[in-house]
Specification:
Distance between the termini of chain B: 13 Å
Number of domains of chain A: 2
Structural class of chain B: alpha/beta
Order of helices and strands of chain A: EHEHEHEHEEEEEEEE
Number of helices of chain A: 4
Shape of chain B: globular
CATH class of the largest domain in chain B: Alpha Beta
Largest sheet of chain A: 5 strands, parallel
CATH superfamily of the largest domain in chain A: Nucleotide-binding domain of ferredoxin-NADP reductase (FNR) module
Oligomer: heterodimer
Distance between the termini of chain A: 13 Å
CATH class of the largest domain in chain A: Alpha Beta
CATH architecture of the largest domain in chain B: 3-Layer(aba) Sandwich
Largest sheet of chain B: 7 strands, antiparallel
Chain lengths: 196, 321
């Protein structure tokens, strides 16, 4: 569970079945377990109208197959999934419900696409599972660094040493990283594993 | 006093009968200046000074938000109501000086929507007159489904069809025309927001169907001003002001509190906005809740009442007011 520190820091819930005509699940790695846990609470036939898109990590595919969803699509990465997801949401109708489970990076990026498609963020079911690794935007060069696990962290674009803030942008699907030694670049605070 | 609603001194600039039941009223500022900006869905509270009695009723602004030289409202005559609409229809003539509140919007468009789906029933068409003007001017994507009893009582149906063509769909009760709600709600593109204004039964029907078809609550907007219902007189003790008052048969609890010189906050006077929510200290009897603000749990608890539209029957009622 993530604690709310400042108002923009996302807080995730526990997936629960919503009324709807179609159900779209997007999950990565241990996010699959959020779906299988939710399945116990779902009404009979719920997965007949459900599509699951899964980015593997670990060995959860068989457990998702066992839910017998209408469709199960395995994608190697979020980037590879993006065109399909955009297409699906463009053609979708009201009555589609979205469920996001897994890492914060996945939830944030899928939500970013959903917001553009006109889904309110409060209408999306989310559950955080697995790594706490963050997607971070360097506020100086604007480059995005994926899978940040340390505090501070080095920007993979401009090389500045950044304090990873809890300040989160839903529009960018990223936490904000601010130079930690702007006054004296020779200062090098200890780097700790903060987001395992 | 009304929270956030400063008063506007206006003069009735025109009174236009629209059909057998509906009349339109135009207001301009007495000082000749422009009226305050508003957005589609906003309402004003009109003060009706009828002898020694003052009624305050909310009405949706129906003119274009792009034109603030005048405000227009349309009022359906209610022959069995508490007399507000009859006063407007019979007593209000061009040139009469009146006082109205600043506009307040409790039924605004969500401009993030990809599409706006509007459902109107009867006189519930008025907020959509303003909202469609606002959207049309900005190239917004909307569709209006309007149910009326008969073609001759389809207030502004002709105007709307002329303005927006096949973006407006009419349903006439006397021709057995019904909205195929299931199909309509199931065929809307993702990102559509739903707006419904009309009789309470219609609003409940649309909200229930939308919820069961998977429309998230954030996408469903509705407005229904409950008119205060007349009822048996009852006595109330206002604990904070240390007063005991009697609520008359044709009076609302809020009006009775105001008549006693106590100034509670209010905004819509129609059981929608929540401003006049009042705590109950003790009671012996039965509440008649008519609002859309409190939860069912609040209604059952006996701890709260909305004095603008709700009443009480019984031995005693003490309010924290």
């Amino acid at each position: 569970m993530t604690a709310k520190t400042i108002i923009s820091r996302p807080v995730y819930g526990t997936l629960s079945p919503q009324p709807g005509k179609h159900h779209l699940f997007i999950a990565d790695a241990e996010g699959a377990l959020a779906i299988t846990d939710m399945a116990g609470k779902a009404p009979p036939g719920f997965f007949d109208g459900a599509e699951i898109v899964f980015i593997p990590g670990g060995k959860h595919i068989a457990a998702l197959e066992a839910l017998k969803p209408m469709q199960l699509h395995i994608a190697p990465s979020f980037a590879s999934l993006l065109p399909r997801l955009k297409q699906m949401l463009t053609n979708a109708h009201m009555g589609l419900r979205l469920y996001l489970a897994g890492t914060e990076g996945l939830i944030g990026q899928a939500m970013q696409v959903a917001l553009e498609a006109g889904i309110d963020h409060t209408s999306i079911e989310t559950e955080h599972r697995g790594s706490l690794a963050r997607r971070m935007q360097c506020v100086h060069c604007k480059g995005i660094t994926e899978n940040v696990t340390t505090q501070p962290a080095t920007c993979s674009h401009c090389g500045l040493l950044l304090l990873v803030r809890d300040h989160y942008s839903r529009r960018l699907a990223a936490f904000q990283g601010v130079c930690i030694n702007a006054e004296d670049r020779s200062e090098s605070p200890p780097i700790e594993e903060a987001f395992p | 006093m009304s929270t956030g609603t400063t008063k506007l001194d206006v003069v009735v600039s025109d009174v236009v009968p629209v059909n057998d039941l509906v009349t339109r009223f135009h207001f301009r500022r007495r000082d000749g200046e422009l009226l305050p900006t508003f957005s589609g869905g906003a309402h004003v509270v009109v003060e009706m000074r009828d002898g020694d009695r003052t009624r305050l009723n909310p009405y949706s602004l129906m003119g274009s938000p792009l034109d603030t030289r005048e405000y227009t409202i349309s009022i359906r005559r209610d022959d069995v109501g508490r007399g507000g609409s009859l006063f407007m229809h019979r007593q209000v003539k061009p040139g009469l000086e009146m006082v109205i509140s600043y506009p307040v919007n409790l039924f605004s468009l969500d401009l993030r929507a990809k599409k706006h789906l509007m459902l109107a029933g009867g006189i519930g068409i008025t907020p959509f007159m303003a909202q469609t003007s606002q959207l049309a001017a900005a190239g917004g994507n909307f569709e209006l489904h309007y149910t009326c009893r008969t073609a001759s009582l389809g207030t502004y149906a002709d105007v709307l069809q002329q303005r927006y063509g096949n973006r407006v769909r009419l349903y006439h009760d006397d021709r057995e025309e019904r909205i195929d709600l299931e199909r309509l709600l199931s065929s809307q593109p993702l990102g559509t927001h739903l707006y419904v204004c009309g009789p309470a039964g219609m609003i409940n029907w649309v909200r229930d169907r939308a919820a069961s078809l998977g429309w998230p609550p954030e996408t469903v907007h509705f407005e229904h001003f409950a008119a205060p219902q007349p009822g048996a007189p009852f006595d109330v003790t206002l604990a904070v002001s240390d007063k005991t008052i009697r609520v008359g048969e044709q009076q609302s609890l809020l009006e009775a509190i105001e008549a006693a010189g106590v100034d509670p906050p209010y905004l819509c006077r129609g059981g929608v906005c929540g401003q006049c929510e009042t705590n109950v200290i003790s009671f012996d009897g039965k509440f008649i809740h008519n609002d859309h603000w409190l939860s069912e749990e609040d209604h059952r608890s006996g701890c709260k009442i909305m004095p603008c539209v709700s009443r009480f029957e019984g031995k005693s009622l003490v309010l924290e007011r």
